[in-house]
Design brief:
By secondary structure, the protein is mostly beta strands. Among the domains are: about 15-110, Immunoglobulin-like (Sandwich); about 635-740. It has four helices and 43 strands. The strands form seven sheets. The protein has a 22-stranded antiparallel beta barrel. It has a five-stranded mixed sheet with strand order 10-15-16-13-14. Strands 3-2-5-6 form a four-stranded antiparallel sheet, with no helix packed on it. The two termini are about 45 Å apart. The relative contact order is 0.11.
């Protein structure tokens, strides 16, 4: 019933807003190069409005009938530095001239995740990493989170190559919120061998916000937010053809995996559509010491999106299905013939509306998800030993009000309802219903070179738990509530230099798993026990970042301190379950502090040579025992070089890349953890674009772990009895095409 209720609310809100639609402003101008010559085919995007266009032969562009407000506008062209402008349309029409500088660097862009309204990355109060375009194509892995794992402050917690969870500043699982197009990704992601159910081949852009963001996203965003952004619906007004598409083919030698996707899209009149189907099939992982028995995976995914846009605003409907079968490699010392596996199906519906009033812009997002996870004890088993079924409905409404002098901002409300049950015989957690309501306000004050921002949010959560005799749980109702806030300052000292300071308070409610689990968890080979006395976590984080972006080099250095009260973790109890023989682990709670430094830099040393580098340093401690926190990533140093040209023979944008990652030994571990040795990995890659009429075939060939290094990553669940994957040759092909203009 509740999903239908949310859907009705979203539709009613859209219809009400349509009645007051008011698109009144025009925005136009000219884009030129350093010699003041007009630049044609420059891409111009207003992310907040999902509007875009390109300059004509004279370098001119024009947007008509835009709602009043302050917007970040992005100007980009291959071979030129991306420029971002904040355009104030609250006083009437705006005309400007933008000059682009020649560069071979991947420059700063606009983020839609860090704040309610899109903003230049340099002007974000929090550190943001964006992966898109050719960079995403090169880094796209067997799991979506492998695409971001080498960025500053970001690593991954992995079980093989297909179960990969993001780690941001030492925090993972329920402390890092994953969203897709702004909708919370709600699956059974609390366990170590459960990863986000997202198709890696149906992603157009990834944004990572490092640091707490509970004001915008509520519970769980203590470490940061990963926003998976799918491709937008094309617009006929912006010149999209009736039928176009893209073919993606990926191959990985290490586990003989092949993957492919076909995307079709088009537009006619006010309507646009986009559809995607993908498949993946891989065998056992190879390490320098041999293959990991029973570590393969299969996927079959699909999605469809349709929407309309006009003077009244825009509306979009999106449906996707993620289907995956995973084999889980077990410790061969215990049972070398074990063949456990998982089957996961995740259905997702998203209804989005973007509509203007005369005094504000309204964004409405209604979502529904169904996560069905089955875990089987052995190959060909017909009945799962564990079945977890989670249904989630969400409704988010954001109102962006017109500027009040130098002040502009957003207020909104978020609703979430969940139902969880376990249809299988084995029960890890009881059946429960969860309801959450949150409201927030976020305002910005723009004063010439200084931008001040502040936000406040209140959340109330109720969890109604059904009695479960097997787990020893009585029927009960639990209530949680929290105030969270944030305050940020960004000083654009000069055009390429910015200083950002941010303070934020976040929170996280304990999960039913942490509260009530009581039984054998086959996936982790442990007998796990919850603690129903656990209280919500709360954090206070301070961030300081210095950013620089010119046409020759850009970079960021950031330092942070995140103090978490009542940090929840699981630790061995020093005993074994007599029936299963598995070690017993109990959930505990203690205050904790994490501090760290991140550095990332990219420089054009020569016209044809680009150098990159980065450093990640982090420490975390249990404040009560002074012991290190468990599962902290080791310190890292990253170095890279890319040789590139605009053209070589008949090839466009050819490149050759060399990358090194040097990881320190992780000796600062909790008493029940094992240490890991340091290691160095080297990757090489090359690629180019081959013109095919008006389209370009992109080919990327790379060798990961070039020297087949035997190593154990500290955040790999297999580290106790297996090495990480060895040498891996990857081939990635991307072919866009147009069928009907």
């Amino acid at each position: 019933m509740f999903p239908r209720f949310l859907l009705k609310c979203a539709i009613i809100a859209m219809l009400v807003c349509t009645a007051g639609a008011a698109w009144t402003q025009n925005f136009s101008g000219t884009v030129v190069d350093e010699k003041q010559a007009p630049l044609p085919t420059v891409n111009i995007v207003i992310p907040a409005l999902k509007r875009g266009t390109v300059t004509d032969i004279a370098g001119n562009f024009k947007f008509e009938k835009l709602p009043a407000g302050i917007y970040a506008v992005q100007f980009s062209h291959i071979g030129y530095k991306t420029e971002n402008r904040d355009v104030n349309l609250s006083q009437g029409n705006v005309t400007l001239t933008v000059k682009l500088q020649v560069t071979a660097l991947t420059m700063s862009r606009v983020t839609v995740t860090a704040k309610p309204q899109a903003t230049d990355v340099l002007s974000s109060p929090q550190s943001v990493t964006i992966v898109d375009g050719p960079q995403l194509e090169r880094q796209r892995g067997q799991s979506i989170m492998q695409s971001i794992e080498n960025n500053p402050g970001v690593s991954t917690f992995a079980t093989g190559t297909n179960i990969v969870k993001p780690v941001i500043r030492g925090l993972t699982s329920q402390r890092v919120l994953v969203v897709t197009d702004g909708i919370r990704q709600e699956g059974n992601q609390w366990a170590e061998e459960h990863g986000p159910e997202i198709d890696a081949l149906d992603v157009d852009r990834i944004e990572v916000v490092r640091g707490p963001n509970s004001v915008l996203y509520g519970s769980d965003a203590l470490g940061g937010v990963v926003n998976i952004i799918k491709g937008e619906i094309p617009s006929a007004e912006e010149g999209a053809p009736l039928l176009a598409g893209k073919l993606l083919l990926n191959g990985f030698s290490n586990n003989h995996q092949t993957a492919g996707a076909l995307m079709l899209s088009g537009a006619s009149g006010i309507w646009g559509y986009r559809a995607n189907v993908s498949a993946r099939n891989g065998g056992d992982i190879s390490t320098p010491a041999g293959k990991l028995f029973n570590s393969g995976a299969q996927e079959l995914n699909g999605s469809g999106m349709i929407g309309a846009e006009g003077a009244w605003g825009s509306v979009m409907f999106d449906y996707s299905r993620f289907g995956q079968e995973l084999q889980i490699h077990e410790d061969p010392a215990e049972d070398p013939t074990a063949t456990p596996f998982q089957k996961i199906q995740h259905d997702r519906v998203h209804l989005h509306g973007h509509l203007p009033f005369s005094a504000l812009r309204l964004e409405v997002d209604g979502g529904w998800q169904r996560n069905d996870r089955k875990e089987f004890e052995e190959e060909n088993a017909a009945t799962p030993v564990l079945n977890l079924l989670l249904k989630t409905s969400t409704l988010d409404v954001k109102a962006h009000h017109q500027p009040l002098g130098p002040i502009f901002g957003t207020f909104g409300i978020s609703l979430m309802q969940q139902n969880h049950k376990s249809p299988s015989e084995e029960q890890l957690i009881p059946t429960y219903d969860l309801n959450n309501i949150g409201g927030f306000i976020y305002e910005e004050l723009s004063l010439n070179k200084v931008n001040l921002s502040a936000g406040l949010r209140y959340d109330a959560r109720r969890m109604e738990v059904q009695a479960n005799d097997e787990l020893g749980v009585e029927a009960q109702t639990r209530d949680y509530n929290a105030f969270t806030g944030t305050a940020g300052l960004v000083w654009r000292a000069t055009e390429p230099l910015a200083l950002a300071l941010n303070a934020g308070r976040g929170w996280r409610a304990p999960t039913p798993f942490e509260l009530f689990v009581n039984g054998v968890h086959e996936g982790t080979v442990r007998y796990e026990i919850g603690d129903n006395r656990l209280r919500p976590e709360s954090s206070l984080s301070l961030d300081l970042a210095v950013r620089y972006a010119s046409n020759r080099w850009h970079g960021e250095i950031a330092v942070f301190r995140n103090q978490i009260d009542r940090y929840i973790f699981i630790a061995p109890a020093g005993a074994e379950d007599p029936e299963s023989g598995f070690p017993i682990y109990r959930h505990q709670q203690a205050d904790a502090t994490l501090i760290g430094t991140e550095l990332a830099v990219e420089a054009q040393a020569l016209k044809w040579l680009i150098l990159t580098g980065g450093v990640d340093l982090i420490r975390g401690a249990n404040d009560e025992t002074n012991n290190p926190l468990p599962l902290l990533p080791a310190n890292r140093l990253k170095l890279g070089a890319r040789l590139t040209r605009a053209a070589l023979g008949g090839l466009k944008n050819p490149y050759f890349a060399f990358n090194a990652k040097i990881v320190a030994a992780q000796n600062r571990v909790e008493v029940f953890e094992t240490t890991t040795e340091g290691y160095a990995l080297f990757d090489v890659g090359l690629g180019a674009e081959v013109p095919l009429g008006s389209d370009k075939l992109a080919v990327d060939l790379a060798v990961e772990n070039f020297f087949n290094k035997a190593y154990r990553d500290h955040l790999n669940r297999y580290k106790l009895y297996a090495f990480n994957p060895g040498r891996n040759v990857t081939l990635k092909v991307s072919l866009p095409f147009t069928v009907v203009r």
